Amino acid sequence: MARKRLGRQTVKLQHPPSIISTATTVGPKEGEGPLSHYFDVVLTDDLCGENSWELSESKMLRETIKSAIQKADKNIVEIEYLLSGDLLNQLMAASFAARDLDIPFLGLYGACSTMTESLSIGAMLIDGGYANYVAAATSSHFSSAERQFRFPLELGNQRSLTAQWTVTGAGAAILAANGSGPYISHVTTGKVIDLGIKDVNNMGAAMAPAAADTITAHFEDTGFKPEDYDLIVTGDLGAIGKEIAEEIVLDKGYNITKVFNDCGLLIFDNKTQDTHAGGSGCGCSASVFCSYIFKEMINKKLNKVLLISTGALLSSTSALQGQSIPSIAHAVTITNILKH
Amino acid sequence: MARKRLGRQTVKLQHPPSIISTATTVGPKEGEGPLSHYFDVVLTDDLCGENSWELSESKMLRETIKSAIQKADKNIVEIEYLLSGDLLNQLMAASFAARDLDIPFLGLYGACSTMTESLSIGAMLIDGGYANYVAAATSSHFSSAERQFRFPLELGNQRSLTAQWTVTGAGAAILAANGSGPYISHVTTGKVIDLGIKDVNNMGAAMAPAAADTITAHFEDTGFKPEDYDLIVTGDLGAIGKEIAEEIVLDKGYNITKVFNDCGLLIFDNKTQDTHAGGSGCGCSASVFCSYIFKEMINKKLNKVLLISTGALLSSTSALQGQSIPSIAHAVTITNILKH
Questions:
Q1: What CA–CA distance (Å, rounded) separates B65 from B104?
Q2: Is residue A252's pLDDT more than 90?
Q3: Are B174 and B21 in contact (CB under 8 A)?
Q4: Helix axes B142-149, B53-71, angle to 10 degrees
Q5: Separation CA B335–CA A143 (nearest Å)
Q6: In A260-323, which ranges are E strands?
Q7: Which of residues 297-336 of B touch A (CB under 8 A)?
Q8: 8 Å CB contact of A111 and B90
Q9: Across the interface, do B129 and A321 touch by the CB < 8 Å criterion?
Q10: Between chains, do B95 and A192 touch, taking CB under 8 Å as contact?
Q11: Beta-carbon separation of A125 and B129 below 8 A
């Protein structure tokens, strides 16, 4: 077994990298939600001064990355890798953002699991000695996602009650070899799980088994228990997926109910904001982690968090071809306290 | 500076991982080309027994990964990460392949640069101590790419002379912490470069500046010279892009002419196979590296190779919105001889 591995899916970082800064930008609707005062920038116009939603998303991502670098008191040339991706075909938001950033770029696609995928690889690149500073970032945009995956917004289609609302938001984190925390101490990489759900308006149910699989693997690999965490938080399972995941994890012998939440439920007030099953999109766990969770960790209100971003790996082609929805979830342990 | 870094874009691996096996599958047309006898499997039907080209591509990728694992005399459970991606929206080929493989999966998108992106991250994960065995793999398929990026094949559109032919092919490599080579000794990660080319039928010209930038960065970071290499080979610049890249690199003070080639020119006989500027696609550098180049390295006919897979990060949406084509290239040094 490689020297840093714990079990099949988890590695323990020997010199856990610090998250030295984060930044977020969200859209108007997200800015009206319960986490409003945690975000750095709330757009008043979701076109962000651009001519298309795709370019708007890319600009939002780029400016959020630049802001995180600035908040870390670093220059762009000091950042050794940019790890990023988004939901758009061929990562249009991330690729176009990277074009203006002059940072060695590794494009990732994990659908809405991209925030923890980028944190995972970033943490290993730093702990492995390949970089001192890495940017991990992702975004999503309600309007660019709707038209790519679902229907033209102009149709005004009625949304299913199991449907989720793609978050317009970007989050970026700067990871560093040296810092005073919060630290990334463990990385649990997900496997692709597909239990046969085909309903593209019920992503939460499709992703729940993948989330549960990764959470269970994390406990088994590390020996951690649910009560070791102040918060276990999935990316965008929403109300339906969260309940399913909780139940599957309980079946495996771990009761996470007391500390379990979902970024898709935190970002919107589903009762007043008409977001049905909750928020979704790469930008969901990115903007919630990089604002609320990170700030509560800095304030020591949260000291140990398991963040599990969750991705539904469907495409509009696979859906039209009648395929079910493969899903994945990647988890990272983020902690203020390192035990030596 | 992090302890394994050479300059801005390159890292030197302290315990260079070995490539212990490779496998390839290609389509009928690739099987009629000059590298025919180097491929493991040549399909007689590019649908591969499936109902769609996308599912065919995914099956080809999955079976190629399984074959590489088998050739390495390993079981699937011994492979700690699968690093893979492809050209299809939301990585349909790789996501669906990973679903059947039960290996922790990190999805990558670098367009046609994915082979070296996966080798790069895989090599760092092994050298960093996070894994003993990693699979790096990618694919492309002429028919799934044409209909996603260009026109329905049924239209029978005339192709521009600058256009390239997407390779139907998959390549997979198994990297290991211990082995007798060929070794991955250096990794140079590309930046996104865009000089303003908008012609989606001239990808070679769009990608050439990115390839030249990475090759030049590699020489500057490592101190290597063109004559240190037996072969410097780009992914899929084709005839036009290769010439441009060669010239830009020469302008920067490095004459690579004697050892420079391109996988897109190696895989087809452009005179008789009507492939215009040459082959392209993730599967181009993947299938050429995992067959011809790897076997020639095992036979010691090639001892030090710089492989630079090249990716055009456009989407059909970005093209329709009048955007130029951002491009990227990642390079890895693969060598039989390690200097200590």
A1: 14
A2: yes
A3: yes
A4: 140
A5: 48
A6: 260-262, 279-280, 304-312
A7: 313-318, 321, 323, 326, 328
A8: yes
A9: no
A10: yes
A11: no
Q: Is A101 helix (H, G, I), strand (E, B) or coil?
A: coil
Where do the structural domains in chain A lie, given as residue ranges?
A: 5-176, 183-335
Place of tokens 């108007």: A28
pLDDT of A269 above 60: yes
Instruction: Please provide the DSSP assignment of B107-141 as one string.
Output: EB-BTBTHHHHHHHHHHHHHHTTS-SEEEEEEEE-
Same fold, B5-176 and B183-335: yes
Residue A4 sits at the chain B interface (C-beta within 8 Å):
yes
Nearest residue on chain A to B6, alpha-carbon basis? A130
| All residues at 6 or more sequence positions from B211 whose CB lies less than 8 Å from its CB, including other chains | B234, B235, B237, B241, B245, B308, B310, B327, B329
Amino acid at B321: Q
DSSP state at residue B292: I
Q: What is the DSSP string of B134-170?
A: EEEEEEE-HHHHHHHHS--GGG-PPPPTT--EE--EE
Is residue B175 less than 8 Å (CB to CB) from chain A? no
Break chain A down into helix, strand, coil percent, rounded to 5. 40, 25, 35
Q: Could you tell me if B18 and B126 are in contact, meaning their C-beta atoms sit under 8 angstroms apart?
A: no
What value does the mean pLDDT of chain A take? Answer: 96
SS3 at position B25: strand
Q: Is A2 exposed, middle or buried (0-12, 13-18, 19+ CB in 10 A)?
A: middle
pLDDT digit string, tens, across residues A31-55: 999 999 999 999 999 999 999 999 9
List, as ranges, residues 131-150 from B with C-beta within 8 Å of A: 131-132, 148
- Longest CA span, chain A: 57
Rg for chain B, CA atoms, rounded: 18
What DSSP designation does B173 have?
Answer: E
Average pLDDT over residues A63-82: 98
- Chain A: nearest CA to B37, how far in angstroms? 33
The Cβ of residue B338 has, within 10 Å, a number of other Cβ atoms equal to 11
Q: What is the pLDDT of residues B224-274, one digit of tens each?
A: 999 999 999 999 999 999 999 999 999 999 999 999 999 999 999 988 999
How far apart are alpha carbons B300 and B334 in whole angstroms?
12
Helix (H, G, I), strand (E, B) or coil at A194: coil
Q: Which helix or strand (DSSP H or E) is residue B250 part of?
A: helix B238-251
Token readout for A306 is 């398991």
Q: Does A257 touch chain B (CB under 8 A)?
A: no
Q: pLDDT of B177-189, one tens digit each? A: 999 999 999 999 9
In words, the CATH class of domain A5-176 is alpha beta
User: What tokens does B107 get?
Assistant: 């999805």
Q: Which two tokens stand for residue A106?
A: 């590794």
Architecture of the CATH domain A183-335: 3-Layer(aba) Sandwich (3.40)
Q: Identify the residue among A86, A105, A195 best suited for mutation to test binding to B, counting B beta carbons within 10 A and taking the highest.
A: A105
Contact (CB<8Å) B99/A190:
no
User: How crowded is the C-beta side of A109, counted as CA atoms within 13 Å?
Assistant: 31
Residues within 8 A of B (CB atoms), A 50-79 only = 51-52, 54-55, 77
What residue has token string 């449907």? A163
From the list A107, A177, A316, the residue facing B89 with the nearest CB is: A316
Checking if the pLDDT of A2 tops 80, the result is no
Task: Report CA-CA distances (Å) from B140 to A240, B53, B314.
Answer: 36, 10, 16
- Picking from B110, B89, B91, B144, the residue whose alpha carbon sits closest to that of residue B285 is B110
Q: DSSP string covering B318-332, please?
A: HHHTT----EEEEEE
Taking a C-beta distance cutoff of 8 angstroms, is the pair A163, A142 a contact?
no
